[in-house]
Design goal:
The longest helix has 38 residues. A two-stranded antiparallel ribbon has the order 1-2. By secondary structure, the chain is mainly alpha-helical. Helix 3 crosses helix 5. The protein starts with 9 loop residues before the first strand and ends with a helix. A hairpin with a 2-residue loop joins strand 1 and strand 2. The radius of gyration is 18 Å and the shape is globular. It has one domain.
Length: 128
């Protein structure tokens, strides 16, 4: 790692270089197509049964794109080629995706909780 990362995350290694992989940026959801990519990947995961390992190349491209998007928050020069060439195998890529999706779910839960709290406060203030 050349410089201190801007965003917290988990330490990963790609092709012998260590990086801090932060969560996906909000912009990936609001102005990008992260949600669509995540849904496509999850649909492929659901189709897999037992040893039947059949993920589409589109989902692999989506995985690489999402990991790259997250890494670029701390390392703007990282490319999709760096991620593709740096992953030892597909399971490494899946592991990185699991981190990203868990962070995405946590963020969605926080937003939902904030909305509930705001609604509760609104109701309480208007009942007085």
């Amino acid at each position: 790692m050349a410089k201190a990362p801007n965003f917290k995350g988990v330490e990963i290694e790609l092709a012998g270089t260590k990086y801090i992989l932060p969560p996906l940026p909000i912009k990936a959801f609001s102005k990008g197509d992260a949600t669509t990519k995540i849904q496509r990947i999850q649909a492929d995961f659901k189709k897999m049964q037992g040893d039947d390992f059949a993920i589409t190349s589109e989902s692999i491209n989506d995985l690489v794109s999402l990991v790259t998007m997250a890494l670029q928050r701390n390392y703007p020069g990282v490319s999709e080629d760096d991620v593709e060439n740096g992953c030892e195998d597909i399971m490494t890529l899946f592991g990185l995706f699991q981190f990203l999706i868990s962070q995405s779910n946590e963020m969605q839960n926080r937003i939902a909780e904030a909305q509930k709290n705001a609604l509760r406060e609104f109701v309480e203030n208007h009942q007085k």
